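@channel anyone free to eyeball this complex?
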Amino acid sequence: MLKIQNLSFQVTNGTREQAEILKDINLDIPAGSFVAITGPNGSGKSTMAKMIMGIEKPTAGRIIFNGKDITDTSIDQRAKEGIGFAFQQPVHFKGMQVIDLLSLAAGHKLGVEEACNYLSQVGLCAINYIFRELDNSLSGGEMKRIEIAMLAARNVQLYIFDEPEAGIDLWSFQNLIQVFKNLLAQTNGIIIVISHQERILEIADRIIVMEDGSIAKDGSSQEVLPHLMFGVDKCQFYGRRLSF
Amino acid sequence: MNPVLKEILQKVSGIDNVPEGAYNFRINGMSELHSNSENTEIVSKPDKAGIDIIVKPNSKGELVHIPTLIDHSGLSDLVYNDFFIGENSDVHIIAGCGIHNDSLHATQHNGIHTFYVGKNARVKYEEKHYGQGSGTGNKIISPKTVIHLSEGSVLEMDSAQIDGVDYTKRLTEATIGANASLISKEVILTTGHQTAYTDFRIELDGKDSSCSIVSRSVAKGESKQYFYSVINGNNECKGHSACDAIIMDQAVVKAVPDVTANHVDAQLIHEAAIGKIAGEQIIKLMSLGLTYEEAEKEIIEAFLR
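replying in thread with the prediction:
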């Protein structure tokens, strides 16, 4: 169970003006939920996810996980409490092999067969990847899939995926959806996916729409999805003749 | 061998006792244990300290161990080892030097290794340097490696300074013939007030010769590292050198690339990157449950692997 209470985050920008990235967010997510968070760029989705993982610290509010206030705990303490995070932009490590990262995620040294199990879930053939270095020789899409396999290996209660579909090709997309379903079935935990992808939003139990640091809509997929626009971001200058 | 020597033998060679194949153990400045194999002969030099390692042509799967172990504080050891690798042979040589110093005297080993690699031969040469002991005396290991690669030959050189070496000045010189290739990978860790100099001077003389010189290092504490690599492309050839360093604390790292094309078809590349551990790498590993210190250790160990 995840509770977010009055969560706010303010930063001082370059001109020393206060910017409110998150404004008094309140959420209650029970175990067994598959939640999609969507909204325009800059609406605060990733910032909120990072706050749940402890990567950013809120300026106000509390985060309660499984009945425990984790607001002031460190990233590694939250990881040990059962929170896992797949980064929007996976991190490169020179010298570290794919199997090393998967082993660190699983908490024990993985054999080839076990590593293969996680990689095959994201459509990667283990034999071609387990001993590859996590460096620039891997494409963005490959890194992204390895990041998802890494989180699948973690065996936690709360899985957070930050835009997992970015860079994932059409052929791998069905695997990605299956990963979410499997994790939910195996753990009966919580899956939070930040996404703009209609096919991910369709399978979510609940969709939270964020706009300008606040929750604009929160409801079931059937309730929220018909009201979402999947088109060009609205721009005040769009269609107007501009002169410079 | 006493337990201390056995311990440093394990560190630099990964063995606990005399191995299979040909070997020569240099212990405290003397050739102590010695054996030939069917295709490899090891002969002591008559005029100076050192050995000739002679591998017959067409020998396959040869294994040669030549560790140097020192636990006499204050010893300054200079040795000349020459390798004559026969044509078409395939040899794996495991060298390495370990110094244990419990006293206040500087202890030093300088190994001068010269390779004459025959046509189409392949050599894998591993060299690991390590220092330990409770004394304040410096542990100094400064090798000079001179490599002559004949047509079609390949020498793969893995060198590692794993810990505890207070000062090193390593020089590698190579002349590379037609279709021959030098592949060198070194890893260096310096801590405290240690200093490491690495200097490569490569002549790509033959048509279609090539070299890859890759250095990965971590400098901690107030240690200093200096990486120099000179590659001269004197024919149609390919040369690549890369220095990649993680800098920590108050350490200093300097990388000086020098590539010269003396031929219109010489393709030469140098890459150098020095920087601290990226914050995002630490955050990533902490999100897997590692503490800051554990994350840092994992990143460094992987980087130097």
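from a first look: Chain B has a mean pLDDT of 96.
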